[in-house]
Queue: 3 jobs
Job 1
Amino acid sequence: MRQAADIEIALRPRPEGVTLQRWLYDEIRTAILSGRLMPGSRLPATRDLALRLKISRGTVLAVYEQLGAEGYIRGATGKGSFVAPELPDLPPRSLVPGNAIAGPKSRDATDTPFESAAVNLSARGRKLSMTPFGVAGRSFPAQAFRTNQPDVTTFPIELWSRIAANRSRRLQPELFMDVDARGYEPLREAIAGHLRSSRGITCSAEQVMLVSSVQQIFDVSARLLLDPGEEVWVEDPGYPGAHQVFTAAGAKVVDIPVDSNGMDVAFARDRAPNARLAYVTAGRQAPMGSVLALDRRLALLNWAHRHDAIVIEDDYDSEYRYEGAPLSAMKSLDETGRVIYCGTFSKLLFPSLRISYAVLPDQLIAPFTSAISLTSRYAALMPQVTLHEFIAEGHFGRHVRRMRLLYAERAQAMRQAADIYMGGLLEIPEITMGLDTPAFLSGDRDDKNVARLAAQAGIESLPLSLYARTHPARPGLLLGFAAVGPAEIASGMRALARVLDA
């Protein structure tokens, strides 16, 4: 073995909050991995190293023992401790952070800064890495005109906290066990009851599956129902989150135009009659806001029945309807089990709740349950328990009714502010439901550029062209009105008008 008992020691300063033992372990381990300490090199005696560093010998002994247990060093009775002589080929120097323990340098050792090696993603991985969602979360408080978000400041936080605390004090041992992959049964029963009364959907708790997001339903649906190259209908302009999940699954996405009556089902049947799946926002088309007409709903269901296809109905925010009761879901017309109906509490209550659900046709219950169990096991239980109590005590119904009135006032405030400040620069159609609205730009403006300039002025918006792929969208912005009050709406409209004037 190489005799190197007098290795020069020059350690980097210990970071704040890191223990002596962890610091010394990291320094020596990194020196070995970087090649600064060669295989077979003898380490300083524990007593000598402790004296040099002015630390406890017990700390050094603990570090050497840990490194020995992990195979980095070996001890020989009466001879000392040595870097393991049979270490496999070490990673390239550029992949290991630098270390200041000076020792015999390997021929490849350099002072190159730490760099990450390139990782080759699969074709699906490259598509999955292009998410349309912000991965860093959203700032608080919300700014005008944040889209796809309810007003979290009006949520009854104290009431929710009290329910959660009371329920936690009454936990039973069975709630600490694994649960049904479909989710907490009392909550599934409550959801089934709500859908029967508010959306016209006749279903049982057996058909309801709880997940963390509707995106998860898209992903599992694609894996269960689509082989690579098979066709799926997707609205265009339409929701990018669905389009990208289906594309990543290897499906051939067929862009279907939308108009004032929703998805053009006749176009879809002519273009891709043998598609296996159709995705539709029937209650309120995303982002244009139209409702899928009855004749098109029936035509879509008839096509699905005749071609053994499945329709995913994403009912993301049409629960908030401001003129009369919410419209019946397309699922309420489904007599042959061709529709997967999806809804979410993240838009009805608050985003971080992360509880969504799907109503499955009977023939898909078993495969979906198995797939969810395999890929994610089941959604976190305690938020489901709290939500069930919130619904069972009547708070959910009262909150939704109160928010309908509040959001209706804000929708009206947005239209009034546009009339006052825009002077024909922006056209906002009548708002009858949802949390946001399309706003159409006058002239031939570049909506992406307008959205960029608006962001520089502190205004949140999304260009409608972001939602279009094959069929161009009319230039405009998607503007949210639910997350902020009338004063913020008015000031935001004034600022947006200055951007458009400029």
Note: Residues 51 and 321 are 75 Å apart (CA to CA).
Job 2
Amino acid sequence: MERAGQPERRGIDAVSDAERIGRPRQLFAVWAAPNVSYLSFAVGASLILTGLSLPQAFGVILAGNLLWICTGVVAASGPAAGTSGSVISRAFYGVVGNKMVLIVTGWLIASAYLALNWSAASVAGIGLAGQWGLPGSPGLDTVVICLIAGVTLLVAIYGYATIVRLYTALSVLLTVVFIVVTGYVLGSVDWSYAPARPLHGASLAAALGTGFTLVGSTALSYSNSPDLARYLPRSCSVTAVAGWTALGAYLPSVVFTSVGALAATSLDMADPQAALEKVLPGWFVPVFVISVVLNAVANNGMTAYSAGLSVQSVGVRIARIPAVLVIGGLGTAMTLYAILVFDFLTSVNTMLQLVVVITGPAMAVAVTDLVLRRNRYHGEQLLRQERGGPFWYRGGIHWPGILALLTGGLAALMWVSTSFWTGPLATALGGVDLAVPAGMGTAALVYWATTRALRTIDRDADADADGPGSPNSRTQKGASLCTPTSS
């Protein structure tokens, strides 16, 4: 049994029924802590800086954050399978195909998100060090980044039980601090704000599309949500797991992204930290900065935890804790490069828009597979990697999944619009960014059509794979409530 305060030794192996405890509602705090976020302020400010009015920005925030529903739905596969999301995805892509996908989604993109959040925390920490009289230098920057990364990796090493316990306290602490910040921001808001040049027609559509991609990109990056639900009892309600996961992320994301938009009506949010510190009393600035760092630790603790499991899922013969350190090292290197080379806000916007080219289609494939299989996943079968196993498919590759991911990614690439790359279809419509609906819609449609045509998903066979009377069998109806299992 995994316990808080002890390093988690379990890797991707299946969680037995005897070790499954808890209720879905604990997922609310787990997902709230990383989303009471400084980055939400930055994203909300970006919506105003692109020329949107406050009502338009609020509409984008409400709509874009609805994508957290996908994160919640995918989380429901965790209790069903009892293993990590990076193993469950073998059902989508095949044993061999999954390894190729995870190198991109589980390693490179995870490392990029580590760098993004560590950059936000490091910018705040470096600024605080300067206020305390420490001379600015690349050496100081490196020390701050490495300290924040080290604390984060410690959380990931201690793992699931510690995350659940710690994030409950962090969600309360961070919410209190950020509500105080919100109070000071509201006192400086220009409630009569209107863009100097209101957007119309194609320019308005382009700003709305870009904003939707920015806001929705965070939710689409969390296809690892089964990792934080796999210790829950198998009998947990799918609706409860999905609902508490989505709600825990949605509420703080909506609130604090909206606060960022409000702040941009009167403050120069090109430098969010400096702008917010102007309206905060001097004594509260260190509290705010420490909270920014704690938020980054919470966010990246989850990411590093799941990325370590992805390393194992690819087949690297390494224990979970060393795997976490490998991913953490890569993320730290990317953070150092980002801090010393790039402008923070530009880096945030460009990355969030570009990653949806991969994360959007990947999320769509995961949700579509869960619907087609009726959330009947079996951890023991998913962990079998031998040739001819249940998820070997043809040559170890489930071609419908790979084809859906590639075509969805191509569709998204044609519609994305950033300062780094603008797709030809986006260009033809004046820079309108439709990468999220185009990529996800294409991937879902291709996956559904090809699995039906090739008959690679036999839902009746999946239902009875564990035999009559098993927890996943058609003859065993899932309980409407989640009943904790005692060890």
Note: The chain is about 65% helix and 0% strand.
Job 3
Amino acid sequence: MNTSQSNESSSGPRKILHKYNTEYTLLGTAHVSKASADEVRQLIQSGEFDAVAIELCPARFASLKDPDALAKLDLFQVIKQGKAGMVAANLALGSFQQRVAEESGIAPGAEMQAAIEEADKYNLPLLVIDRDVGITLKRVYRSVPWWQRAGLIMGLFTSLFSKEKVSAAEIEKLKEGDILEATFSEFAAESAQMYQTLVAERDHYMALRLAQDNGDSQYKKVLVVIGAGHLKGLSENLNGHLPENPTEQLAILNSLPDGNKWLKFVPWLIVALILSGFVIGFSRDTGLGTQMVIDWVLINGGLSALGVLIAGGHPLTILTAFVAAPLTSLNPTIGAGFVAAAAELYFRKPKVADFSTLRQDTANLKGWWKNRVSRTLLVFILATLGSAIGTYVGGFHIYDQLTKIL
């Protein structure tokens, strides 16, 4: 039997739900509010609850528990495993969070930090119930059509670095949602699918995690600390039907939707076109074939090298990108960005201080170029982007040359 009641006092909005043999107190907090942090402390100190659940994923929880976690990054492995873009996105989100803290005087997530500290102080079980931020970002990325993804990425970084001061409107958004929702709010307003991925899925996910972590109702009174924007959705999901074993549904929400399969073949088709162009060019005229190869090297290598130059890469890294990109583009399993980043790490190995100050440095635009860690990530991203553009531009150029001789 489920019952619920709302509490709209001067404190944060609350809903009390009874699910099976557990009473859940859902506290809607403002992520940028000292009052919310104080209220969380007071509720836990009251002794009414035997467990606390928080709207954090394991990665964000670890970051709050260990602010120096970034200093332990193995940058080469991050790039090798294809996580460079994700790390860069998290740093970009962190820079927005840092600027909000500077403008408001309160670090976003202070109420989560308060919940962690008080739960530890009173030896209460702490349930970390949100979906991993990396999976959410990937699902957001997959939720939009492929032709809009570049704009989404550029919009993310542009919005985070377009101005030094955070507007009052942006801080207001954070009072109900979190960093992710505030960042993508404009996109989500225009995309029902993105809203579904960013907000509704997480409401469902958190309800399932509560059901999983308290499946046998071992906790009788649970305080659930969430952003006010999730209060309605989470309460509806908790009031609804929850499976006895939520593992299967959680696995679905943790998976990545299949992309368009035909897109996987596009790079190989372009490689086939380019190589065919070289063969046909040399078969017709050695000079024409040679010119095609030169054009390919200049276009692909030049644009990848330009990306490294913009990223502030070492001169020898720029040269490495110029040489590597025309070759790696003919083998889609190896990226020019990986080769360029490996070269940058070789020529400019990050120091301990770079890792220690990474979060602070990336809070402003100039810091991304100053810090060797973030600069290496920029080298990877911009070298990859330059080579990708060069592949398409060079491919169409060769196609144009072929149409003139065939």
Note: Residues 6-10 have pLDDT under 50 and may be disordered.
